[in-house]
Structure formats: C-alpha cells, structure tokens
Amino acid sequence: KNEVEQSPQNLTAQEGEFITINCSYSVGISALHWLQQHPGGGIVSLFMLSSGKKKHGRLIATINIQEKHSSLHITASHPRDSAVYICAVDSGGGADGLTFGKGTHLIIQP
Amino acid sequence: GAVVSQHPSWVICKSGTSVKIECRSLDFQATTMFWYRQFPKQSLMLMATSNEGSKATYEQGVEKDKFLINHASLTLSTLTVTSAHPEDSSFYICSARPRPGLPHMDTQYFGPGTRLTVL
User: Fold this and answer.
1) Which of A78, B28, B66, B90 has its CA 20 to 30 A from that of A107?
2) A6 and A102 in contact (C-beta within 8 Å)?
3) Is B113 in contact with A42 (Cβ distance < 8 A)?
4) How far is CA A16 from CA A7, A74, A108, A110, in A?
5) In chain B, what residues touch A44 (CB-CB under 8 Å)?
6) How far is B113 from chain A, CA to nearest CA, in Å?
7) Nearest to A96 by CA among B27, B30, B97, B79
8) Residue A48 confidence (pLDDT)
9) Residue A86 half-sphere exposure, CB side, CA atoms within 13 Å?
10) Positive/negative CA dihedral, B116, B48, A4, A72
C-alpha cells in the first residue's frame, strides 16, 4: 500500500508570496494528482503528472519519479488560493482508486 | 472540460432510513467510477470501485451490504447508504475515469461531493 506524505500540514502566508507544497510517496506510481478542495468540500483537479513539470496559470507542479517526490508551487499567491491542497497517487493505472495525502491547509492573508 | 455531477449536494436524514447518491459523468463515458468518503479533518478514503455492468469492488472495512453501489450505465453510478446511522455522516465524493480510448483516460474527474448528515 502506498504511503503518501504531504508537508506542510498547515501554511499561512502573505499575499504575493511564493508557495511550495511537497508530497512524497513510498511505492512507484503511474500518475500523481494535485487536487484543490475548497471549504464547501468541492474538489477540483489541478494537475495530473506522470513525469516532469506542468504549468497552469500561477500554478506549477513537478514530479521526480526516481525520488518519489512531487511539489506544487503557487506564484504570486492570492487570498482566493486559500484552500486545502491534496496530493493523490494512482498506483495501479487501471481500475484502482487513488491514495490521498492528508492535505495542506493553505491560508493566504491579504 | 469533463464534468461529473453528484446529486444531491447535501442531505439530512433520520437514522434507519436509506439514502441514494447519484454520480453522473455529463459529457463522457466512464467505465470506472470511484466512491470516496471523507470524515471531518481527515483525508479522502476510497470506499469502492464501480465498474459498469459488474459488481463493485469494496475496500477492506467497507460493508458492501450497507453501501450498495450500482453502475448501470456508462454515465451513472449510484451509492445507496442503507439503514443510515449517525456514524455514516460524512462527505461522499465520486470520481469517474474516462473509458479506454477517450482523451485523458488515465485521469479521474471528481464530482462536487454530497454531504450526508444522519440525525
């Protein structure tokens, strides 16, 4: 069973700061997801990665398969980025569900 | 983009009653749908994997007779919580994986979730 660890668990930063959230996992995977969960509970899929780096707007996600590590970066952070960010790994690539990290609770203060 | 809907978005029911939650992929076909549960301040946990036309596969510790899953079509899966009790109160989320051959078939698209409160 894959163990997914996220850090930090909680992060409070000022608007405009560069944010990094880390995720590590224990067993090789077929893909890694970064998800955003807002206070109401709804989940938005931000990225799915199997290698390298992806960028979408102010969000950047990287993955190092050899080191079993991924990072999510937010540039020029804004209060609307406040949410829980969850790392989830897909170990099977087929009919298996995801294994989730516990999430990082991010608060961006104006 | 791919959209997954859930209905209802929230439900309050009395202990002992049954509640059905629907998960629909609106603009793509999904041979596999997943049901997750999230208790307050905890991470999401996979409950079961639902494959169209076959029986669902349940994770260890999830009672299949209590959480009935039906995946009758390529766009609809339902989760029925039978004889609900207060400890079943949780946030239930589904996700759908596009069927093989469709774009982005390696990813999952998440529904908005259903908050169940059992009194």
Assistant:
1) B90
2) yes
3) yes
4) 20, 9, 9, 9
5) 110
6) 6
7) B97
8) 87
9) 24
10) negative
